Amino acid sequence: MKPPSASQHEGGREQKGNGSPHFELERGPIKQVQRAIEKCVRAYGRDAEHLTDLVRCRMVVQTVPDLLSLFDRIQHMSVVGLSYDDYRGSKVVDMTDEGKQRQKEEFVAAKSVWMTKEEASTFYEEVFNLNNEVKQASNEGNTKGQKKSEGDDQANDESNEEGRNKPPQEKQPRIFRLVRIKNRFADNSAAYDANLGYRDLSLNLEVGWISENGRVSFLPVREWAKTEGTQRHVFEVQILLKSFHRIATDRHGIYELYRNMTGK
To answer: Could you tell me what percent of the chain has a pLDDT over 90?
Structure first.
C-alpha cells in the first residue's frame, strides 16, 4: 500500500473523487506547540494522550448527500470502535468479577478527564457488548461452516473446481480504526456549541504503519498487532459543507478570540 503524499501548506487543496463521492481535500498544518499546550491544559487535565488533532485535514463537500456518501465510504475502510485491549496496551488477564470491576473503574477514571463518568461507564459497556457480539457471530459462522453436509460438497464439486482456477478476490483492507465521531450537525450533540453555530462531522481515525529503508507502508488494522515495529497515530478528519467552510475560514480570528475568552 502506497503512503499518502507529503502534507502541503495550509490552504493547499486537492480535488478528489472522479466518481462519487466528490470532495476537496484540504491538508491542515501540524498543530502548533502553543495551541497544543493550551488545549492539553484547558480541556484535558494536562494529559497529552487526549490530543487527537495534532495531524488533521478537512474534506469539503457541496451537499449533505455528498457528506453522507463520503462518511459511508470511510466507514467501509474502517474498523469501528476500540477494544479494551487497545486501551490497556495488553490483554486482560484477570477475568474474575472483582478483576472486571477494577478494570472498569480504571477505564472510567482515565476517560473521565474528558467525559462524564456516566458517559465513560456507558462507553465501557458498549465496547464489551460489541466485542461479545462480534465473537458470538464469528463462532456461529465457524460452526455453520463445520456442519456443511457432504451432499452439498458433492453438488458443488464443479463450481469448486472452477473457483480454484480463479485467483482469490481480495476484499478492500480496512486501514483505519474509527475511534470517535463528533456530529456537530445534531443540535443535541455534546460537541455542538450553540454559541458558535459551527457545523461539521469530525472523525478521529487511527492508522498503523511501518518504516523500512526510508519508506512508509500503511498496514490494515488486522496486521497491527502481529507486525513487529508497527507505529500508530490518531488523527482528525473534518467533513463539512462548502458553505460552512467559507464561514469558518473567514471568521477563524473571531473563533480564536471566543476560544481564549472561554478557556477552551
So the answer is: 27
